[in-house]
Design goal:
Layout (H helix, E strand, L loop, with lengths): L1 H21 L2 H13 L3 H14 L4 H14 L2 H14 L4 H14 L2 H14 L4 H13 L3 H14 L4 H13 L3 H14 L4 H13 L3 H14 L4 H14 L2 H14 L4 H13 L3 H14 L4 H14 L2 H14 L4 H13 L3 H14 L4 H13 L3 H14 L4 H14 L2 H14 L3 H14 L2
Length: about 450
């Protein structure tokens, strides 16, 4: 009996050895997975190539190669590999989950969700499938569904960085910047090379007015992925807020060189050129942004502001009307249309638009400033000054508010207060053109 047992054990061992030798593709798969874990995508793909060469029916090798192609951004190749893996093994949940993620990257969101649904049906504990579906829901602007899926992914796999990143995106879109930053922090802790987490955390910091932290994150995103065009565009936006307009334009130029179809980059460069007083160039950039993204409401609103600066008030009003048609609660569109009404002497219509903007956003300082200008146009300087006061309270570092209040005081004959405000404008503004204008007005008063 004992001899029989050892005989069976030896035969079994030999059979297992033969089985392993008969599929050396598994060794290539194993090594490919090691390289993929090290984020050496090309080396991983080379191993997976060898695996499918040795065993063309090895479904897992195609599915794993698809993951590597995904991380390289080669979405069509990832989808093709998933198709092949599913053809060979229709119950391979990972292949559906990966294909779903690739479809999200291509904007095919319904296909993405359907694939993730299938992956979850096949394997209800596959955390990546929930995370990928959450990402697709976030792209569809269904943020509560996105958060629920990411919660489930994190419950199943607390170390899944992408789930925190996707949930952060959803929280950010819902305006919960604190929760978004906390999720991005966790994603970066788990995967310090996740450039998109730095990019979106930078945007969250920027939205909160924390520009230095935003810039640091944009710098890191660019360091990790120098080809990420939107990071340059976002950093350009932060430079605009800091008043460093030439740096903003340089960053937008870089973004456009990397991706000539990125409408955001033209939009931001248009804002920077507007800030420099280059209104024709600003309009040309906003034209391009609108051509690339025809429903870009903010681009219409800001082109309207540039037309207003040029004195082309009918064009300005038409652009703002279009922006409001596209997004009825777009606060800057009401403010910019008010500027055009103010410029054309329609002060009551300007005030009505500012009232609407303030109703929608009580802390939108620019609307108080514009309403102040309209009241000043009507000769109602006390009401104008009251509005400039409110604008200054909300944005004490915006030199234009002091400039406008200074002119209102001057119109009332309160020269000392006017001089104080104009000097304050020169002290705080980051816009050379505005400082020059304030200096000219100051010289008139001090004659």
């Amino acid at each position: 009996m004992k001899k029989g047992f050892w005989f069976i054990l030896i035969i079994s061992t030999l059979l297992l050895s033969v089985a392993c030798l008969s599929n050396p593709a598994r060794e290539n798969l194993k090594q490919g997975d090691v390289y993929r874990g090290q984020e050496q995508w090309d080396k991983a793909i080379a191993e997976y190539n060898q695996a499918v060469k040795v065993d063309p029916k090895f479904a897992q090798a195609y599915a794993s190669r698809a993951l590597a192609y995904m991380r390289k951004g080669e979405l069509d190749k990832a989808i093709a590999d998933c198709d092949k893996a599913i053809e060979l093994n229709p119950k391979l949940a990972q292949a559906y989950a990966t294909r779903g993620r690739a479809y999200t990257g291509k904007g095919n969101l319904d296909k993405a969700i359907a694939d993730c649904d299938k992956a979850i049906e096949l394997n209800p504990k596959l955390a990546q499938a929930y995370a990928n579906r959450g990402s697709a829901y976030a792209e569809k602007l269904e943020f509560d569904k996105a958060i629920a899926d990411c919660d489930k992914a994190i419950e199943l796999d607390p170390g899944l960085a992408e789930a925190y990143y996707s949930r952060g995106r959803a929280y950010q879109a819902k305006g919960d910047l604190g929760a978004a930053v906390a999720d991005y922090d966790k994603a970066i802790e788990l995967d310090p090379e996740l450039s998109l987490a730095y990019l979106l955390r930078g945007l969250a910091y920027q939205m909160a007015g924390e520009l230095d932290q935003a810039m640091a994150d944009y710098d890191k995103a660019i360091q990790l992925n120098p080809g990420i065009a939107v990071a340059y565009a976002n950093r350009g936006s932060a430079y605009i807020q800091k008043g460093e307009l030439d740096k903003a334009i340089a960053d937008c130029d870089k973004a456009i060189a990397l991706d000539p179809t990125l409408s955001l980059a033209y939009f931001q460069r248009g804002l920077a050129r507007h800030g420099k007083g280059e209104f024709d160039k600003a309009i040309a950039d906003l034209d391009k942004a609108i051509k690339l993204t025809p429903d870009y409401a903010l681009a219409y609103a800001n082109r309207g502001a540039a037309y207003a600066e040029k004195g082309e008030f009918d064009k300005a009003i038409a652009d703002c009307n279009k922006a409001i048609e596209l997004v009825p609660n777009l606060v800057p569109a009401y403010n910019n249309r008010a500027l055009a009404y103010y410029g054309s002497g329609k002060f009551d219509q300007a005030i009505a638009d500012c009232d609407k903007a303030i109703e929608l956003a009580p802390k939108f300082a620019q609307a108080y400033n514009t309403r102040g200008l309209a009241y000043a146009g009507k000769g109602q300087f006390d009401q104008a000054i009251a509005n400039f006061d409110q604008a200054i309270e909300l944005t004490p570092q915006d030199g234009f508010n002091y400039y406008c209040r200074g002119l209102a005081y001057a119109a009332k004959g309160e020269v000392a207060k006017a001089v104080t405000d104009l000097k304050k404008c020169i002290e705080v503004t980051r816009v050379p053109r505005l400082a020059e204008m304030a200096q000219q007005e100051l010289a008139k008063l001090e004659q």
